[in-house]
Design a protein that fits this description.
single chain; alpha+beta; Glutamine Phosphoribosylpyrophosphate, subunit 1, domain 1; Rossmann fold; 2 domains; seven-stranded antiparallel beta sheet; six-stranded antiparallel beta sheet; 16 helices
């Protein structure tokens, strides 16, 4: 799996680049391949940018902030879906338009990016990157020629774009934040010292000592210009289709998305698993980090004692969002060490967020059995992955999905578990009863918010 990315924007804040870096630290879990910050400097009326491959701590140092003057900034952490892990694909992305230089950051994936790219290339446009973010930038640049108004240009572009996108951008000192008409990717607004900020998750607003204001609505465009904060809408209105995997895996537990606490959603996942897949066991453990909270919920729901079964190496990133399978498998061994004294001789329930290819689950179960666990019962906080995702969660083609390749019994045997239980598909929406939006669960059900042409 690839993607999530994280986006951030700050308007009218002193040391905007430093604030953006702090927010990107809080969003680092959403992407570890590359990051960048662009600022707009009123004095020179120009965009300044620093970006590179690597994590925030590797890309930004004190000298870099000196190269990022201005009180307006957009920032991005990247994990690639469309476009490889190359320096040219890192964001922010700059695009020259007739109205000035556009600095754009994007979380999501356009399902019709290939068709739009072919259309733009036929008009003579030359792409410098492999990213669908550049497709969005060229669409906006073209619409600006016609409308000369960025909001009108966005509204026109949104009628052409299909898929998921949360965008923050700067154009001539104006900041815009945009959420796609289905609200597939999260985007919220906050306030820091009286100035507006935007972020993929509310945890980033807290990181810059801000106050959460609200989530952007599906299809909403927020424009910040001087003292004015205005709201517009583009695309067809909908009840929303937020990616349910935000609550299962991607988002940080202390975030609240569209009114639903991620922490509470994961507790509920564990309780549902305990109800739907009970087992006689001595200990419930979670796979760090995304399985830990659900494990607490499973213990509460089952009455089985909860404990820790692994020591995690905090210097190893999230194996789920490594770009190659070889890297994912090797990092499992480096990242997790079983606590022999905790699991030896015990029947263990091991709770994890998902099972996609099945290639990292087997080594994880093997670690516990080698440490002396008598039984390992795997419980998964998501239904089986059966279909691809076209909207930014890089679920691989169907033939690579473990639950497509093997029967339930075969998969249980292949990962070395004594039993295997998935979250029931008919309970997946029960994870987030407080959400103000509906959900997309297409990777589990095959039912997408709209028909995908490509």
């Amino acid at each position: 799996m690839h993607e999530e990315c994280g986006v951030f924007g700050a308007y009218g804040l002193a040391s905007a680049a430093e604030r953006a870096a702090l927010a990107l630290y809080a969003l680092q879990h959403r992407g570890q391949e590359g990051c960048g910050i662009a600022t707009y400097d009123e004095a020179s009326a120009s965009i300044h940018m620093v970006k590179n491959l690597g994590q925030v701590k590797e890309v930004f140092g004190p000298k870099d902030f000196l190269a990022l003057p201005g009180d307006k900034a957009v920032g991005h952490v990247r994990y690639s879906t469309t476009g490889g892990n190359l320096p040219r694909n890192t964001q922010p992305m700059l695009a020259g338009t007739r109205e000035g230089t556009l600095a754009l950051v994007h979380n999501g994936n356009l399902s019709n990016a290939a068709a739009l790219r072919r259309e733009l290339e036929a008009k003579g446009l030359i792409f410098q990157t492999d990213s669908d973010t550049e497709v969005i930038a060229y669409l906006l640049a073209g619409e600006l020629i016609r409308t000369k108004d960025i909001v009108a240009a966005l509204q026109a572009a949104m009628t052409r774009m299909e898929g998921s996108y949360s965008l923050v951008m700067l154009l001539n000192g104006t900041m815009l934040a945009v959420r796609d008409p289905f609200g597939m990717r999260p985007l919220c607004m906050g306030e820091v010292e009286g100035s507006p900020v935007f972020a993929s998750e509310s945890c980033a607003i807290g990181a810059v000592r801000g106050r959460f204001v609200r989530d952007l609505k599906p299809g909403e465009i927020v424009r910040v210009e001087g003292k004015n904060v205005d709201s517009f809408f583009g695309g067809k209105p909908s009840a929303g289709a937020l990616c349910i995997f935000e609550h299962i895996y991607f988002a940080r537990p202390d975030s609240v998305i569209d009114g639903q606490s991620v922490y509470e959603a994961r507790l509920r996942a564990g309780r549902i698993l305990a109800e739907s897949h009970p087992v006689k066991a001595d200990l419930v453990i979670g796979v760090p980090d995304s399985g830990l909270i659900a494990a607490i919920g499973y213990a509460e729901g089952s009455g089985i004692p909860h404990g820790e079964g692994f020591v995690i190496n905090r210097y190893i990133g999230r194996t789920f969002i490594e770009p190659t399978q070889e890297m994912r498998a090797s990092k499992v061994r480096l990242k997790l060490s079983p606590l022999r004294r905790a699991v030896e001789g015990k029947r263990v329930v091991m709770v994890d967020d998902s099972l996609v290819r099945g290639t990292t689950m087997g080594p994880t179960v093997a670690l516990l059995k080698k440490a002396g666990a008598a039984e390992v019962h795997v419980r998964i906080c998501a239904p089986p992955f059966l279909y691809p995702c076209y909207f930014g969660t890089d679920v691989p083609s169907r033939e690579l999905l473990a639950s497509v390749r093997w029967s339930h019994e075969e998969l249980t045997h292949r990962i070395g578990a004594d039993s295997l239980g998935f979250l029931p598909l008919n309970r997946v929406h029960d994870l987030a009863p407080n959400s103000g939006l509906g959900f997309c669960d297409g990777c589990f059900s095959g039912k997408y918010p709209y028909e995908v042409a490509e």
